[in-house]
Amino acid sequence: MKVLVIGSGAREHALCRSLSLDPDVTALHCAPGNAGIAEVAELHQVDALDGAAVTELARETGADLVVVGPEAPLVAGVADAVREAGIPVFGPSGAAARIEGSKAFAKDVMAGAGVPTARSYVCTNAEEVAEALDAFGAPYVVKDDGLAAGKGVVVTDDLEAAKAHAAACDRVVIEEFLDGPEVSLFAITDGETVLPLQPAQDFKRALNGDEGPNTGGMGAYSPLPWADPKLVDEVLETVLQPTVDEMRRRGTPFSGLLYAGLAITSRGVRVIEFNARFGDPETQVVLARLKTPLAGVLLAAANGGLGDLPPLRWRDDAAVTVVVASHNYPDTPRTGDPITGLDEIAAVDAPHAYVLHAGTKRVGDDVVSAGGRVLSVTATGKDLTQARERAYTAVARIGLDGSQHRTDIAAKAAAGEA
Ligand code: AMP
Ligand code: GLY
User: Fold this and answer.
1) Has domain 2-90 been given CATH number 2.60.120.1440?
2) Between vectors from CA 324 to CA 66 and to CA 340, what angle results, nearest 5°?
């Protein structure tokens, strides 16, 4: 099978790594990719938002399967263009990707499907905003309706800050605050059958102890030793399957990866958000634990044959990933700094620890930083304690001027806490 992956983050590197280890994959292409992906896939230039250009590249590479990683091309309808050309594609249509592209649409789907989520109001002017904030009280949760690369949400006790964020957006969703630990649960679906993956936890804040600004995600781990073993079955039954059924009922079937961001509250599981694609950095730890070869599963989702597959198989290992970010991330990051230590990790720490590239590029003999999140250092071990030790040993070998990373990824979970 020849596979073309669209995207350039650590998530796409994780996907390409798993696909490159799959004996059914005979050729692997990625566009635009990054310096790390270049080691496992042939890179191509493409405007990932241009459906015609992606389709043309799929034809040129003879792809039997196209995997669209990020949300922006999905929301722009890139998967529709590829599918219309008769090429199997893993990723939802633009209409179905609205479940991520519009928070108000997602709320409407959840209402239709009877899926538990935070109570909310959609507001388009200052009066509505003031009323909604008053109705729920602090802490205030204000969400930009549209795509915002994980940075559109403000959670604050400060009423003026809540109002200011709402004023900066066209349309906002204001909702009740959900307490309790967060879980990311991904499911692969062909629009009917839903195959949940193993749950993971993401660390969204920039600094240790969940302080500082929201980011795209600074680390992740799986499994969740503190979680109820019935969690996945429960979420399949109350969230994932009803949502997929509702999308089909509306005439916009969702195929691809449905990402449920969940809060485990004192009153039960609630959906915080849906995404229409693999999460980053959770994908790095989930795929590190998946034993079943990936390509056949993604192809079955693309072709509508998931119900015929045997159950997914998982390693008993735990996995931890630590994101190394540029100076000043999540504000405008500094780029162009050389990265050292990668060869040493490959020589000394592999195969238990390895580096997945996000914002990197090759300049001559050097690999240099080219984005906010630069690397996702991933490790497996017999438990979270060992996986953490291996991940942080590898992180310590990396030289990147001004870089930052959290030192507490999976620390509480390794000690048995949520
Ligand atoms: P989102 O982009 O919707 O995932 O939101 C980003 C982060 O904001 C989430 O991971 C939560 O930490 C936080 N958040 C979003 N909605 C709520 C809520 N209703 N209650 C508490 N925290 C929330
Ligand atoms: N890890 C959060 C996201 O991918 O949206």
Assistant:
1) no
2) 95
